[in-house]
């Protein structure tokens, strides 16, 4: 699955009734749930033999879902935005490579194996 495919799916899913404000409230709720799981992992909150890794993955998937849905409803190409933000951050913080270069190298390796 690509970011573009997720955006298209979520735009189709929410285009009739997706309201930015309600999606944002869901996003905030899910971020709170990520914080709760992280607090359990760190021992700051009690946990009853829960699979915290699975819970964290599930909550992070929800965060991505709502963030990408908001982007899709606002015609924001997250793939482009992520690449541009990373390019700027990589230059600012003097990283040896940026995301776009990393992906190109990884894809080249896949083609050669």
Low-confidence stretches: none
What structural class is derived from the secondary structure elements?
mainly alpha
- Report the order of strands and helices: HHHHH
The helix content is over 70%
Q: Mind summarizing the main beta sheet?
A: none
Query: Roughly what is the average pLDDT, rounded to an integer?
Result: 95
- SS element count, helices: 5
Beta-strand content estimate? under 5%
Instruction: Say how many strands there are.
Output: 0
Describe the structure.
- The chain is mainly alpha-helical and 113 residues long.
- The protein contains 5 helices and no strands.
- Helix 1 packs across helix 3 and helix 2 runs antiparallel to helix 3.
- The longest helix has 22 residues.
- 9% of the residues are buried.
- The mean pLDDT is 95.
């Amino acid at each position: 699955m690509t970011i573009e495919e997720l955006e298209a799916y979520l735009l189709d899913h929410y285009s009739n009734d997706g309201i930015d404000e309600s999606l944002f409230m869901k996003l905030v709720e899910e971020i709170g749930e990520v914080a709760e799981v992280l607090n359990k992992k760190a021992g700051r909150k009690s946990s009853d033999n829960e699979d915290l890794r699975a819970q964290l993955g599930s909550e992070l998937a929800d965060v991505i879902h709502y963030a990408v849905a908001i982007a899709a409803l606002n015609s924001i190409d997250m793939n482009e935005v992520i690449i541009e933000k990373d390019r700027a951050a990589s230059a600012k913080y003097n990283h040896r490579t940026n995301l776009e270069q990393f992906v190109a190298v990884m894809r080249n390796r896949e083609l050669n194996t």
